[in-house]
């Protein structure tokens, strides 16, 4: 048993909350709404009341517990160290167990059916495209049971002409490999941001790392987990694990903050008491964010300069979820000619938070406005991050604010620098 | 109980978005930061945006005899915003505009929902500070802090909130709006109503605008940590520094239990064998800081203290980390953290610390004591588990004895956290029956129906039908 199967297992987390309200100072949703139910303190007390039978599972309770970015800003700032994200996820799962998934779907649909959403969406085709694109992979390819597919199918914008996995062979070897990495592409990099995926491959090869892209891999499953659909998430975790177990490699590399959390933390938790538990832990130990891996391997420093003015946005699930914030900055700063400008509150949530931005689009945009303002103040021409979901949110937000900075993944900037330097990938295809 | 008519009329004042009636929403306003207090769902939560709306709410509350519970961020530690009956919580968080910064007169006028830190951020570019700095400065509101007259780490030199409030706009129970005080540095006309409302904990009226005094930010500061292997040494240092005519901005003490707890939690390099440490900071003009720091250092050494002086900002930050870690370290020890606020005359600090050790043994509870030694304001912090009834019994008896001891030493029930629900039963200890009666007469005069935060501070005055 773990918190996803039994809310009582996070009772201690809830009991630890001393209701001090410190989370109010950092919660992006509290900042926008100023409502107690939106801040960690409120959500923890609601989940606790539900556990103790003081509050029944209702649509409005589900709505309150779904209203969370799981950005963990509260966790980082909590004197008692309450794992608010775990409490929220465990409570969502418990309610789905009690009431069934369709019931949660209804709550989500309520959000989706808001007239403003479709109205705005249809009026501005561009925005709608990105909206649909953002979620399409999770919905269609990854998890047909995920509740928000049909509505959007008719207006599907074009995805990448060729998916990343179609584009590359399964195994790519540099001339002389010093390590072997299996690349978990994640949905966004496979279907939409193939440019990021390509950069991962090229940069690894340029650093003499063999790259394997397992064919059958699919969505990490976290979108289902955050909606409390634990069985589906567990199924997807088990399946991905099984697929990756077929290969032989030193590192499992990801370039998405959420996928990284999935492999490092959620899979071992989800599979803890299954026969695959030990394997999940082994894989977790091998999982590396691309920034982390490059620094660990003492990546090749590019010699040629890139005349870019750059700022960096910390994805929540990288900076707080995995404690990675120095590495991407180190990589960026190692590029000659690149001017790095730190933005204010670089680790503040961009408001995407997976499907949160779909069900709460206007709130998501409100949260994002702070990010856009911080970026604007730096006057950079390029915003860099380490997560495709953040990238999508930032592109959307910057475009709507009439700003032009490009948004790239760290690894793409490094790739560009390598290209200028003339560091070839020198790969030979196998298989 | 007030019927649906009350809520219907309220809705007309506020609209549906700013009147919360759903169960889950109400649940989130049934508590505050005070540990081990009861929880009662309010009838509804109102979120006004203007003085007119507040007056409108109070007129309705008076007409329908509905008790109201003013609320800022709900960070108070005395149960001050816990609704006791099916009353109306009025949350001021949406009345959060800074109305005026008057740099010539060094004043700021704010709505009650402005967070203290936001005011500080707004005045910083002018080289000014708003000195009251409770540990909750990043979350607590101006209204809540005026109503509690909260203090903080700089209390010794800079005083508490009531020393900075110059003028107020207040809405009374019946909806009457009135002003008292103003921007003049001197103001002695009439009764000092400003002071009367400071620390009134929402029982006399509702502050809808607050004018406060600002002061120039100190040009320089010097922090140091003094380690003592005997409590007496630390105590003599506290009085010795003042006797040497130095008033530090901060003079914080941590006892052995706190030192060990903090050290286990964050490995700050604190001496776990020490009986106590003092964290001291002097601030002001560089030359004065230099001179005062030397005196402080000397007095510490004379009393057997080993002194570490922060050479730069990074080292200063390091020292402060240890003090700031006191609460989190305690909070992570056990699920429930009962943070008390016993205050004694400065000279009685060693006696109080020894008494706390004795009380901890007597009731077999864990008490970590830290606090603002310079102003005699200690925060004995009991770590426990609210779910363990037997343990909580002991905790409550220990708390009783802590306050009896503080009063016996010539102290007070609260240096900064207020009375609220939690300490209401001790009020007679400090004020005697006649003292409490005076307060009740004031309360009755201003709130004859007893609808403003009933049950708090002066005890329950029944809602009249
Ligand atoms: C971690 C932590 C550290 C703390 N550190 C300190 C400290 O160092 N020093 C200190 O003094 N306190 C401290 N406190 C206590 C608390 O933060 C202060 O009392 C604070 O001023 C309360 O502000 P609030 O906005 O949360 O008010 P609330 O808790 O919401 O309300 C406090 C009181 O004010 C009344 N009230 C609120 N708004 C109004 C209004 N507009 N008109 C009339 N009455 C009103 C309420 O009815 C209640 O009685 C700390 C608390 C925590 C949780
Ligand atoms: S900061 Fe932590 S302990 Fe404090 S109210 Fe928020 S969740 Fe609870
Ligand atoms: S995880 Fe983020 S959005 Fe959710 S309560 Fe914490 S700070 Fe707020």
Automatic annotation (TrEMBL), chain A:
It holds the Pfam family CCG. Its cofactor is [4Fe-4S] cluster. It is an enzyme of class 1 (oxidoreductase). The keyword 4Fe-4S applies. One of its GO terms (molecular function) is glycolate dehydrogenase activity. Residues 6-37 form the 4Fe-4S ferredoxin-type domain. Its EC number is 1.1.99.14. PROSITE patterns: 4FE4S_FER_1 (PS00198), 4FE4S_FER_2 (PS51379). Binds 2 [4Fe-4S] clusters. Component of a complex that catalyzes the oxidation of glycolate to glyoxylate. This is Glycolate oxidase iron-sulfur subunit. It comes from Neomoorella glycerini.
Automatic annotation (TrEMBL), chain B:
Its EC number is 1.-.-.-. InterPro entries: FAD-bd_oxidored_4_C, FAD-bd_PCMH, FAD-bd_PCMH-like_sf, FAD-bd_PCMH_sub2, FAD-linked_Oxase-like_C, FAD-linked_OxidoTrans_Type4, Oxid_FAD_bind_N, Vanillyl_alc_oxidase_C-sub2. It comes from the Bacteria. PROSITE patterns: FAD_PCMH. GO terms for molecular function: FAD binding; oxidoreductase activity. Its cofactor is FAD. Keywords: FAD, Flavoprotein, Oxidoreductase. Pfam families: FAD-oxidase_C (PF02913), FAD_binding_4 (PF01565). Residues 38-217 form the FAD-binding PCMH-type domain. Belongs to the FAD-binding oxidoreductase/transferase type 4 family. This is Putative FAD-linked oxidoreductase. It comes from Neomoorella glycerini.
């Amino acid at each position: 048993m773990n918190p996803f199967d039994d809310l009582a297992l996070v009772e201690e987390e809830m009991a630890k909350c001393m209701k001090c309200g410190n989370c109010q100072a950092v919660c992006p949703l509290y900042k926008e709404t100023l409502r107690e139910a939106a801040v960690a303190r409120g959500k923890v007390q609601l989940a606790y009341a539900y556990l103790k039978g003081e509050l029944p599972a209702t649509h409005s309770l589900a709505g309150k517990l779904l209203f969370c970015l799981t950005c963990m800003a509260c966790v980082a700032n909590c004197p008692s160290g309450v794992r608010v994200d775990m409490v929220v996820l465990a409570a969502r799962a418990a309610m789905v167990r009690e009431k069934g998934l369709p019931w949660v779907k209804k709550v989500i649909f309520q959000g989706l059916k808001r007239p403003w959403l479709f109205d705005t969406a249809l009026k501005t085709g561009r925005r709608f495209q990105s909206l649909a694109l953002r979620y399409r992979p999770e919905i269609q390819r990854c998890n047909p049971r995920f509740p928000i597919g049909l509505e959007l199918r008719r207006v599907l914008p074009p995805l990448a002409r060729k998916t990343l996995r179609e584009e590359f062979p399964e195994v790519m070897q540099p001339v002389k490999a010093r390590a072997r990495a299996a690349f978990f592409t994640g949905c966004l990099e496979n279907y939409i941001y193939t440019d990021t995926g390509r950069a991962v491959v090229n940069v690894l090869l340029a650093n003499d790392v063999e790259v394997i892209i397992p064919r059958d891999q699919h969505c990490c499953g976290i979108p289902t987990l955050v909606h409390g659909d634990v069985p589906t998430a567990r199924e997807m975790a088990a399946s991905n694990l099984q697929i990756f177990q077929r290969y032989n490699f030193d590192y499992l590399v990801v370039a998405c903050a959420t996928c990284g959390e999935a492999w490092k933390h959620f899979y071992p938790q989800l599979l803890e008491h299954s026969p695959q538990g030990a394997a999940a832990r082994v894989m977790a130990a091998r999982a590396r964010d691309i920034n982390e891996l490059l620094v660990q391997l003492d990546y090749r420093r590019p010699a040629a300069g890139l005349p870019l003015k750059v700022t960096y946005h910390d994805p929540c699930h990288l900076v707080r979820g995995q404690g990675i914030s120095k590495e991407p900055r180190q990589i960026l700063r190692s590029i000659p000619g690149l001017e790095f400008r730190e933005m204010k509150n670089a680790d503040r949530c961009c408001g995407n938070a997976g499907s949160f931005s779909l069900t709460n689009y206007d709130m998501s945009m409100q949260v994002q406005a702070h990010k856009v303002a911080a970026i604007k103040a730096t006057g950079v021409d390029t915003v860099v991050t380490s997560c495709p979901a953040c990238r999508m949110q930032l592109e959307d937000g910057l475009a709507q604010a009439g700003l032009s900075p490009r948004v790239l993944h760290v690894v793409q900037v490094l790739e560009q620098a390598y290209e200028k330097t003339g560091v070839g990938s020198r790969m030979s295809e196998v298989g | 109980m007030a019927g649906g008519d009350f809520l219907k009329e309220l809705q007309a004042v506020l609209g549906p978005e700013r009147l919360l009636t759903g169960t889950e929403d109400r649940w989130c306003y049934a508590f505050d930061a005070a540990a081990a207090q009861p929880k009662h769902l309010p009838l509804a939560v109102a979120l006004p945006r203007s003085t007119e709306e507040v007056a409108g709410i109070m007129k309705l509350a008076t007409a329908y005899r509905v008790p109201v519970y003013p609320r800022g961020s709900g960070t108070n530690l005395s149960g001050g915003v816990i609704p006791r009956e099916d009353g109306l919580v009025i949350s001021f968080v949406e009345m959060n505009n800074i109305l005026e910064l008057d740099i010539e007169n060094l004043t700021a006028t704010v709505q009650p929902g402005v967070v203290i830190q936001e005011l500080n951020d707004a005045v910083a570019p002018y080289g000014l500070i708003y000195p009251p700095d409770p540990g909750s400065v990043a979350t607590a509101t101006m209204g809540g802090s005026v109503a509690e007259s909260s203090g903080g780490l700089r209390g010794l030199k800079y005083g508490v909130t009531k020393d900075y409030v110059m003028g107020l706009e207040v809405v009374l129970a019946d909806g009457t709006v009135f002003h008292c005080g103003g921007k003049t540095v001197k103001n002695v006309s009439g009764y000092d109503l400003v002071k009367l409302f400071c620390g009134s904990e929402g029982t006399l009226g509702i502050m809808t605008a607050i004018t406060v005094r600002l002061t120039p930010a100190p040009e320089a500061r010097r922090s140091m940590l003094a380690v003592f292997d005997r409590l007496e040494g630390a105590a003599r240092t506290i009085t010795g520094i003042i006797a040497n005519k130095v008033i530090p901005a901060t003079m914080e003490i941590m006892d052995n239990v706190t030192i060990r707890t903090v050290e286990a939690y964050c490995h700050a390099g604190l001496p776990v064998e020490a009986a106590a440490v003092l964290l001291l900071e002097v601030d002001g003009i560089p030359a004065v800081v230099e001179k005062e720091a030397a005196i402080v250092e000397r007095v510490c050494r004379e009393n057997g203290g080993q002194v570490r002086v922060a050479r730069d900002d990074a080292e200063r930050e390091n020292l402060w980390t240890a003090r700031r870690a006191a609460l989190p370290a305690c909070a992570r020890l056990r699920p429930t953290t009962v943070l008390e606020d016993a205050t004694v005359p400065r000279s009685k600090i060693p006696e109080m610390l020894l008494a706390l050790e004795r009380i901890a043994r007597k009731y077999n509870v864990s008490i970590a004591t830290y606090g603002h030694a310079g102003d005699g304001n200690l925060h004995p912090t009991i770590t426990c588990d609210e779910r363990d009834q037997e343990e909580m019994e002991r905790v409550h008896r220990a708390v009783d004895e802590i306050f009896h001891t503080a009063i016996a030493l010539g102290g007070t029930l609260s240096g900064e956290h207020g009375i609220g629900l939690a300490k209401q039963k001790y009020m007679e200890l400090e004020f005697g029956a006649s003292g409490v009666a005076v307060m009740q007469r004031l309360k009755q005069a201003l709130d004859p129906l007893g609808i403003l935060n009933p049950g708090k501070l002066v005890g329950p005055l029944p809602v009249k039908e």
